[in-house]
Amino acid sequence: MAWFCYVLALSEALFAFLILWAWFTIVWVAPVLPALWLAIGAIVLFFVAAVTFTAGRIALERAKI
Questions:
Q1: Nearest in space to 45 (alpha carbons), one of 10, 9, 16
Q2: Rounded to whole angstroms, how far apart are CA atoms 20 and 43?
């Protein structure tokens, strides 16, 4: 279970990075509202990845007992 949380957190972080990359790429040609939507989505995904990573650490600590 813990390894799945780590893999999920890494994949979410990668996905959030790709969204940020897309935002930095298209921000010059896109309207402001969709660019902000992408940036907010990437921030939320990074937050979810951090929570998932923490859940994985907790699961690992509990599994050691």
A1: 16
A2: 9
